[in-house]
Amino acid sequence: MDTILQFKNLFYYYHSNNKKNTLLENVNFTFETGCFYSILGPSGSGKTTALSLASGLDNPKEGHVLYKGKDIRKIGLAKYRNKYVSIIFQSYNLITYMTALQNVVTAMEITGVTINDKKGRALELLEMVGLSEIEAKRKVLQLSGGQQQRVAIARALSCEVDLLIADEPTGNLDENTSDEIVKLFKKLAHKENKCIIVVTHSQEVAKQSDKVVYLEKQNLVCKNLKKN
Amino acid sequence: MNFIKRAFLSVKARKGKSLILFIVFLVVSNLVLAGFAIQNVSQKANDHARQTLGVDVSLRMDEEKLMENVARQRQENPNGKIQHPELFAEEADQLAKSPYVIDYNYLKSDMLLADDYTPINGDKDEDGVSGAVGGNHSGNMKMPNTFIQGVRSSDLLQEFTDGTNEIIDGRSIASEDTNKKVALIEKRLAEQNELQVGDKLKIKSTDETSDVELEIIGIYKNSGITDFEGNLPAMMHPSNKIYTTYDATKVIYEESDKKGVSINEAIYYLNDPENIQDFKADAKKSNIDFNLFKLDAHDALYQKMVGPIENIAATSKIIVYLVSVAGSIILGLIIMLTIKERRKELGILLAIGEKKRKLIGQLLVEVLCIAVLAFGISIITGKTVSQKMGDSLLQQEVIAAEDQKEESNTLGFSFGMMNKQEKDVEPIDNIDVSISSQDVLNLGGLGLLIAILSTLLPALSILRLNPKEILLKDE
Fold first, then answer.
1. What's the pLDDT band for B135 if we cut at 50, 70, 90?
2. Residue B6's closest chain A neighbor by CA?
3. What pLDDT is stored for residue A190 in this prediction?
4. Looking at beta carbons, which residues of chain A come within 8 Å of B6?
5. pLDDT digit string (tens) for B3-29?
6. Which of these, A40, A2, A10, lies nearest to A28 by C-alpha position?
7. Are B40 and B111 in the same domain?
8. A110 interaction partners in chain B (CB closer than 8 Å)
9. How confident is the model at residue B122 (pLDDT cuts 50, 70, 90)?
10. Residue-averaged pLDDT of chain B
11. Prediction ipTM score
12. Domains: count for chain B
């Protein structure tokens, strides 16, 4: 397995009422390809901050986020998000005036996916996450929360990147769908050698991941979780 | 080019917002187009007025300035003789040399007495009046019965060009006749006195101290004489009007000792109405005293004709400015609100890796496609809107002009045989507004500018957008 993402001497803090609140302190952690990670931690521990740093939505106060050894600031955050990472948000973040299919195709167009039949590939991915063609052609607001989350996952998968970061991706899904999505993540990690990082509260999801990372005392700590 | 596709999807999906933008653009483009069209009409009206009024420019005494001059003389020297400024043909010749002048005429007129013939209705007149009349004349003066008009060329006179007077025998007075004592007389006068071409007639001054004998070279017929005018006393009867050379009048006025021939008015006929202003500008360089004389291209009539239209053109110009500015502000505010509403969508696109300039491009395409649709429709509706707007504005201006005319109207009286070089015109009170391709181009240019400015300025806020703040704050 190769190193894909690295937090190096990473610090993140913010000031509130003249008080410095540190969320991440001197974090050094390496994520590898072919591995499915879950990040666990209590609310407010900095999970979302870690996710936003990993996905290029924010810059660390100190230290570096390296993608395949290169500082993502040097790559350019917009280019990094465009070419190297896909993000799945807890609140789906779909474009509401588009259909599910259009959301996926739009992401493929923006990220410059070279497949000719983008529509066909998008339908394939939507089917893979459990949406029929009829549902795929519905406006996203006409879909249930679970269905919208699946669209968000299909959109992330469509971008053909090696690093996929998800914030509570199964939070709004029923048990069966959640299980299917987790299986899909595992398959992507193991069969397609991608790196999947999932921020979750779910022990079930964590149990199925390859590595469980805890956010403890402003740092990431890798722990083994007993699997069923 | 996916941002263009997104723009079309967005316009289609946001029907309400798109409709509001469309209505604003439609109103703006109709008003702007109407403004441009009305300004065009004004230009056409100017051309029409110039064509109607002709290409003649008169050089004559400025009455207002003369009054001021006389008043000043009286103030400076209450007992002194008032000096009346004179215009000499030799001075007026300077302007005739202008490259814009294709022909010119000199006019000199006065009321005189028939000597060896009987004027029309001459037998009805009183024998005469005694006493001093006028500034320079004193002693016994008789009531004049002949109007004499000294000219350089009779063919150039208004009454001959419009067909009121027509040469029926002989020939007209031409520039070659300068220095000759020749005359054109009216048919009725000729018939009454059995005068023919080649005969001579004598005219004398009202104080009977000087006279001149003129050879009749032509007989004209005045077709404008009505029964009313036919009964006028000799002094006012149009048939008693005799045309001669401006030079011949010198004898009667006993001006032979003067340095040149004084005239009342010089009329220059230009090659193009567009050259009037240039001609006037060039004329200022001559040694004619423009503190006392003026060049008049029927300026008052021109103003009367096109004044209302020029006013509405000015109003329409203001409308174009106001609508453009107000329209841009309104559109800008709508787009600003739209951007605020769409922050999340923009954040999502940024999170996927879309470039900020493409987001601005998407907004611009959205606005432009609505604007283009509105502009297209305004080309169809623009003519009706322009016509209605133009009619309404013009009507107000014409009414205002009439009110003003009534206020300033003074009682006037003109003699039937007086100089008819001055015309009368009615203000242009109807316009035919049409949309030209130039108007459409102007609208397109201005509309594009409005659309781009009203989109780009609010869209600059996109440059400050941070996807993390937009998306993760909503989590």
1. very low
2. A106
3. 92
4. 106
5. 898 999 899 888 898 999 999 999 989
6. A10
7. no
8. 2, 349, 352-354
9. confident
10. 82
11. 0.86
12. 2
Highest mean predicted confidence (pLDDT) among A135-139, A203-207, B413-417: A135-139
Q: Which residues of B touch A55 (CB under 8 A)?
A: 351
- The predicted structure's pLDDT at residue B253: 65
Say whether A81 and B475 touch across the interface (CB within 8 A).
no
Residues B128, B241, single domain; the answer is yes
The whole-angstrom separation of Cα A125 and Cα A127 is 5
H or E segment at B17? helix B15-53
> Within this chain, do residues B340 and B204 fall inside the same structural domain, yes or no?
no
Whether residue B210 sits in one domain with residue B126: yes
To the nearest whole angstrom, how far is the Cα of A26 from the nearest Cα of chain B? 22
Contact state of B351 with A78 under an 8 Å Cβ cutoff: no
Which domain range does residue B190 map to?
A: 57-297
Would the CB atoms of A95 and B348 count as touching at under 8 Å? Answer: yes
Q: Which residues of A touch B467 (CB under 8 A)?
A: 57, 81
Predicted pLDDT of residue B49: 77
**Cβ contact B475–A90 (<8 Å):** yes
List residues of B whose CB lies inside 8 A of any A CB.
Answer: 2, 5-6, 9-10, 13-14, 344-345, 347-356, 467-468, 471-472, 474-475
Q: Which of A81-90, B249-258, B338-347 has the lowest mean pLDDT?
A: B249-258
Percentage of chain B surpassing pLDDT 90?
21
- Comparing alpha-carbon positions, the chain A residue that sits nearest to B356 is A78
Q: Are residues B259 and B326 in the same domain?
A: no
Q: Is B374 exposed, middle or buried (0-12, 13-18, 19+ CB in 10 A)?
A: buried
How do B87-88 and B101-114 pair as beta strands?
Answer: unpaired
Contact assignment for A93 to B14 by CB distance below 8 Å: no
Report pLDDT digits (tens) over B321-346: 998 899 889 989 998 998 888 888 88
Beta-sheet strand order (sheet of A195-199):
A85-88, A163-167, A195-199, A36-40, A211-216, A219-223
Question: Average pLDDT over chain A, rounded to whole?
Answer: 89
Query: d(Cα A75, Cα B321) in Å, to the nearest integer?
Result: 47
- Chain B residues closer than 8 Å to A79 by CB: 353
A83 → chain B, closest CA residue: B353
pTM above 0.90, yes or no: no
Q: Please say if the pLDDT value at position B464 is more than 90.
A: no
Same domain, B309 and B262: no
Residues of chain A with Cβ-Cβ distance to B354 below 8 Å are 78, 82, 110
**Is A83 within 8 Å of B475 when comparing Cβ atoms?**
no
- Given B297, B318, B347, which residue is the final one in a domain? B297
pLDDT at residue number B422: 53
Burial class (CB in 10 A: 0-12, 13-18, 19+), B413: exposed
B151/B154 Cα distance (integer angstroms): 6
Same domain for B216 and B358?
A: no
Q: Under an 8 A CB cutoff, do B472 and A98 touch?
A: no
| Residues in chain B closer than 8 A to A159 (CB atoms) | 352
Structural domains of chain A sorted by starting position, each given as residue range(s) with its CATH number in brackets: 34-52+78-223 (3.40.50.300)
Query: A97 vs B468: CB contact, 8 Å cut-off?
Result: no
Residue B125 has pLDDT above 80, yes or no: no
Given A48, A83, A96, which is nearest B353 (Cβ)?
Answer: A83
The answer to whether A4 touches A33, Cβ cutoff 8 Å, is yes
To which residue do tokens 């998407």 refer?
Answer: B362
Q: Is the CB of A96 less than 8 angstroms away from the CB of B345? A: yes
pLDDT per position as a tens digit, B297-330: 777 777 777 777 778 788 888 988 998 899 889 9
On whether both B234 and B369 belong to a single domain, the answer is: no
State residue B280 phi and psi, 5-degree precision: -60, -40
Give dist(CA A146, CA A169) in Å, integer.
10
Domain boundary among B268, B297, B326: B297
pLDDT at res. B185: 93
